[in-house]
UniProtKB/TrEMBL annotation:
InterPro entries: GH, Glyco_hydro_1. This is Beta-glucosidase. Keywords: Glycosidase, Hydrolase. Belongs to the glycosyl hydrolase 1 family. The keyword Hydrolase applies. GO terms for cellular component: cytosol. Transmembrane segments: none annotated.
């Protein structure tokens, strides 16, 4: 189908600090990566050196014809020790915001994208006695960075954080299907919801800011009559986090694939696979957008903050993205209030333990850090420039 998107639609690309910046040495994940008995096969190391090369990255976003860039502020850099705020790192992130604005890019800033300071984890992490208070204080310290920023994500994929916490506590390894994980640690989930609301209170001091959080949408679909079990999986792993956003300024939708639920739990279909092992399922985005809109209600706008594919075949990336955007256009035509689409990711980056899954619109040489824009990026840029698919 041919589709025209709204005139003020945000077209962008996304990154996360730990995955692209490099040498995030004060974070908990850095400690996990570099532990002698680490469960992670590869280290982030210098990553994409985006801490130093962010200007080049923003130039690429602008030159492609996109109008938005999502990036995260790294808590472990801003507060490397409890109560000690780094003015230098705050100034760095402020320069990134100004760099977006100077290039005509709308910054979408995430305050927590999976990683936390090592000291925070040592104090009990999200279930520690002062976790919410400490996160609130961190958010307050970042407020000067956010002048002129309209879109702020408090926490990235809190449902995934809570599910990973449960998995680590149980000593399990992550399963192949995107959502085929244990139920979330409910204490962690409750703490994240409280931290999100505390962060929104702090962000209320900035009248221009719209705040919300992003949820990993798993597109649970019942097979073999397992509707009740699929609904149970959806509620515990996704819907309770959507419900917590019903009073937010927006909600971020993040979708990649689907999870089939049979009578005995997740079912792995005989299907085409991506480099992460997930089913190739571009329709996941439309399903996630419609499910989220139905759950949070019409008063909460949606922003697609992540969608993409791990593939070494750039033509497959175009195929996947075209089909995903076609579904998104159908949802928009039916009245779903979606304000923008941010592709994951701008760069081939560190995917939480491995460099193998390449999601990027731009490849990065691991030795020289040279950026090479892929044909898929130029195709996507043309969609953004013309606002049509």
């Amino acid at each position: 189908m041919d589709a025209t998107f709204p005139r003020d639609f945000l077209w962008g690309a996304a990154t996360a600090a730990h995955q692209v910046e490099g040498n995030n040495t004060a974070s908990d994940l850095w400690a996990f990566e570099n532990a002698p008995d680490s469960f992670l096969p590869e280290r982030s190391g210098d990553a994409c050196d985006s801490y130093h090369r962010w200007r080049e990255d923003l130039d690429i976003v602008r030159d492609l014809g996109l109008n938005s860039y999502r990036f995260s502020v790294e808590w472990a850099r801003v507060e490397p020790a409890p109560g000690h705020i780094s003015r230098a790192h705050l100034a760095h992130y402020r320069r990134m915001v100004e760099g977006c604005l100077d290039r005509g890019l709308t910054p979408v800033v995430t305050l927590h994208h999976f990683t936390t300071p090592m000291w925070f984890r040592a104090a009990g992490g999200w279930t520690g006695p002062d976790a919410v208070t400490r996160f609130r204080a961190y958010v307050r310290s970042v407020l000067p960075v956010l002048d002129g920023v309209e879109w702020v994500c408090t926490v990235n994929e809190p449902n995934m954080v809570a599910m990973m916490s449960a998995m680590i506590k149980r000593g399990e390894r992550r399963e192949n299907a995107a959502g085929a994980m244990p139920p979330p640690d409910q204490d962690v989930a409750d703490a994240l919801i409280a931290a999100h609301h505390a962060a929104r209170e702090e962000l209320g001091a900035l009248p221009r800011v719209r705040s919300g959080w992003t949820v990993a949408n798993q597109n649970f679909q019942a097979v073999d009559g397992a509707d009740d079990l699929a609904a149970e999986w959806a509620h515990s792993r996704e819907d309770q986090f959507l419900d917590a956003a019903k009073d937010d300024d927006f909600i971020g939708v993040q979708a990649y694939t689907r999870v089939l639920i049979g009578r005995d739990g997740p079912v792995e279909p005989d299907a085409r696979r991506t480099l992460t092992g997930w089913e190739f399922h571009p329709a996941a985005l439309e399903g996630a957008v419609r499910h989220t809109a139905a759950r949070v209600g019409p008063a909460v706008p949606l922003l697609v903050t992540e969608n993409g594919i791990a593939t070494a075949d750039d033509g497959e990336r175009v195929e996947y993205t075209r089909e995903a955007l076609t579904g998104l256009a159908r949802a928009l035509a039916d009245g779903v209030d979606v304000r923008g689409y941010l592709h994951w990711s701008l760069l081939d980056n560190y995917e939480w333990g491995s460099w193998t899954p390449t999601f990027g619109l731009v490849s990065v040489d691991r030795e020289t850090f040279a950026r090479t824009v892929k044909p898929s990026a130029r195709w996507y840029g043309e969609v953004a420039r013309t606002n049509t698919l």
